[in-house]
Amino acid sequence: MLTLIKLLKTLNSTQTNFQLSLALIFGMFSGFLPFFSLINAIVVLVVFSLNIPLGVYVVFTVMFSMLGALLDNSFATFGYMLLTDSSLNNLWTTLYNFTPALWFNFNHTITLGSFMVSLIMLFPLYFISKPLFNHYRNTLIKLSQKIKIFRWFILDIDTTKKVKLFRWWGSGLIIAIFLIVVLFSILLFDPIIKYSLEYLLSKATKSEVSIKNVNTNFRNTTFKFSEISIINDKQISNIKHIIVDLDTDHLINKKLDIKSIDIKDISLNNKLLVQTSYNKAKTSQQTKNTDDKGQASDIFKFNLLDIDAILNKEDLKSIKESKMIQQRFNDINKKWKDIEENKINNIDTKNLNDDFKNIKVLGKNIKSLEDIKHITIEIKEFKNKISVIQEEINVYKEEYKKDKDILNNDLKQIKTLPNDDYKYLISKYSLNQNSAFSIVSTYIGKDMSKYIKIFIGYLNMIKPYLPSSEDDDKIIRQKGQWITFKVLSPYPTFVLQNLNANIVSKKFDDCRIYLSYNVDTKININVSHYKQNIIKLDKKLHLKDNIVNFNANVNIKKFDNMSSIIDVNFIKTNFIYKDRLNKYDMIIKNILNDIDMFYIESKITTSLQNTNDMKISIVSDIDRKLKNGLKKESNKQILEYKRKLKLKLKEKIRANIGNISNEDFEKYSNLLNDKENLLRNIQKELVFKYNIKNIKDKLNKQYKNKLKKFFNKSSIK
Q1: What residues form the membrane-spanning segments (predicted)?
Q2: In this model, does residue 431 exceed pLDDT 50?
């Protein structure tokens, strides 16, 4: 309440209204603009230099700060629109290459947006606020004359005293404060840097970081950080000292040029690192692998694709064709069952036999020419019946022949049906070139990818503190965005001319790291004669008594793309294979005993924005050394796999076709042949015994016998 009364008194303590309006205007600038900006510092200096009520200025600054927090997104959008306007691009490019303009942060969206909004509102707000303040004060004076309590809000005004525009002590106070801050900063610079770095590094690494001493030489602009330790519950790392040498020639242009960074004697607690790594590997193995007693090691196990899964997945021509063959067989079989039941079985052979017996009876009882004529007619009709039946049988036989040819072709096709699909599957699911397995790509590729992603994680952690890409168009809410323009100066914004570091350890003779940055980043890491007693590759496979040379060259272009070449040369090693004396283990053990050195060269390219597009190529002579030994065994496995694949394919086709055979189909041929043979026998006998000539001869013979008997009887008498 007392604060409000003081504020109201302050509003009535000045002699002119323009002072209140200026306090309102400058409060708007300070409230809308980001607090830590050069423009805001100039506004504060002007406020202290002019005869403006400081209390009113502070109140309006707080009010407009709260309003500005709500309008930050609008300021950012407005500033972004201005900075990306193509018609203003030349202006912004010129300012971007003009050093004083850079210090005003004009290329920051919220800074530019809030400044332009304040500038637009300056004159309207000034001329509107003056009469409002005047009306308010006159109203308060009238109320004070009527109501005594309002006299508390009014101070006596000396209207005879001339109002001064400037406040001489204000500028002096600001300068004095600035000098005191600079002096204390110089005196306390080292401890401020020390505690600031400890806090920031501890937060970034989530570890306890301590720095014993920080020594700054302003004359040479060098910084020395001594005895740095990074401690957490898993590891302890120490650095003897870090010396940073700056080149200040380009600092006025907001360009950071680091001549060199020298990191001396990086010491890691190798025992903790190895134990941690071993525990992680052990946990991973326990969760992923089961006891493989009596089995070959997973690294050398032939993990071939599941045959049933392949056959179910692929739309194979042979499978579809086998289903069509099955359908054709069923259709033909059904058709001939119908023919058998409704056609062949209905051929009336009994009537034929009866007719033929009747003809036989007639043939025996021929006594006259009328009998001959009658039997001739019967024979002719009987032959016509046989001809009709014969034609019908011929039609069925012709149709049977066609269907039988179809079935025979299908049966032949079944034998060769899987061949084309088998060749297709073998070519599509080729196990490997030349039947060789890539142990390096299989075994090291996944781990390499994992460590690269860890490296990229650390890179992303420090990326916000490095120059951003020019094509980053995403607006960050509440923080704004820095828009970059074409740099006409050939000198880049950030340069690290040289970084040298060495790591001290009993495990290797020498380890040196070199890094340089000038738009692009180059990193070289070289480790000589790294000694590691045991390297566990697998539950069964270890590398013992290892001496390794390591060299890595990494190139990072604008923090967007990375390419690297990593050479690992095992100049001495012994493969230890804990075998169980099965047939796989014996082969592997004999092959590995002959290998005492090998190299691995890996090339890695990736986009740092999307690590899913990472490409890793690995070349090693260990593949060649293992290839010859593994080739024989792998060929056996592959041949067995091919045999099973072909067998499974045939079984699947056979399952679709069923027990197709032309043996059952032969019964229809036999049935037709039986009918036909019956007709032939009847025809043959009919032709042989009952042709007209035979009947006439028989009749003549009968007449001759009768005449002979007649004459014999007459002569006797």
Answers
A1: 20-48, 55-83, 103-128, 168-189
A2: no
What are the φ and ψ backbone dihedral angles of 224, each rounded to 5 degrees? -120, 120
| Cα distance between residue 347 and residue 683, in whole Å | 16
Taking alpha carbons only, the member of 57, 60, 59, 62 closest to residue 45 is 57
For 173, residues 6+ apart whose C-beta sits below 8 A from its C-beta are: 48
Q: Could you tell me if 609 and 691 lie in one domain?
A: no
User: Is 580 a member of any domain?
Assistant: yes
The type of residue at 56 is V
Give the residue carrying structure tokens 């009847």: 682
Are 532 and 513 spatial neighbours (Cβ–Cβ below 8 Å)? no
CB 366 within 8 A of CB 655: no
Q: Which of 158-162, 436-440, 701-705 is modeled with the greatest confidence?
A: 701-705
Tell me the percentage of the chain whose pLDDT exceeds 90: 4
Buried b (16+ CB within 10 A) or exposed e, 458-468: eeeeeeeeebe
- Going from the C-alpha of 327 to that of each of 199, 315, 323, 486, the distances in angstroms are 80, 19, 6, 74
Do residues 644 and 668 both lie within one domain? no
For residues 40 and 118, state if they share a domain.
yes
End-to-end Cα, the chain, rounded Å: 186
What order do you get walking across the sheet with 222-231 strand by strand?
208-217, 222-231, 236-247, 256-268, 494-504, 510-518, 520-536, 541-557, 561-577, 598-607, 615-620
Residues 575 and 597: beta-carbon distance below 8 Å: no
- Please state the length of the chain: 717
| Structural domain contains residue 427 | no
Q: How far is residue 698's CA from residue 346's CA, in Å, rounded to a whole number?
A: 37
Residue 311 included in any domain: no
Distance CA 138, CA 131 (A): 10
Same domain, 109 and 205: no
Question: Are residues 468 and 607 located together in one domain of the fold?
Answer: yes
Q: Which two tokens stand for residue 20?
A: 């209140």
CA 135/CA 133 separation, integer angstroms: 6
Q: Which class for 502: exposed (0-12), middle (13-18), buried (19 or more C-beta within 10 A)?
A: middle
Higher model confidence: residue 611 or residue 73?
Answer: 73
Residue 323's identity, in one-letter code, is K
Tokens of 60: 């309006």
Q: Which of 25-34, 543-552, 654-663 has the lowest mean pLDDT?
A: 654-663
The boundaries of the domain holding residue 197 are 188-274
Distance (Å, rounded) from C-alpha 549 to C-alpha 569?
5
**Euclidean distance between CA atoms 488 and 494, whole angstroms:** 15
Work out how many domains the chain is built from and give that number.
Answer: 4
- Phi, psi dihedrals of residue 716, rounded to the nearest 5°: -70, -40
**Amino acid, single-letter form, for residue 133:** F
CA distances from 419 to 429, 636, 641 (A): 15, 21, 15
Residues 141 and 13 in one domain: yes
Instruction: Estimate to the nearest angstrom the gap between the alpha carbon of 712 and the chain centroid.
Output: 124
Q: What is the CATH number of the domain that holds 263?
A: 3.10.450
Give Cα 546 to chain centroid, integer Å: 36
Answer yes or no: is pLDDT of 368 > 80: no
Q: Give the integer Cα–Cα distance in Å for 411 and 310.
A: 26
Identify the H or E element spanning 54: helix 54-83
Asked if residue 282 is part of any domain, the answer here is: no
Supply the mean pLDDT for the chain.
Answer: 73
Mean pLDDT lowest among 76-90, 564-578, 665-679: 665-679
Q: Say if residue 62 is in the same domain as residue 193.
A: no
Check whether residue 242 and residue 376 sit in a common domain: no
pLDDT for 28 beyond 80: yes
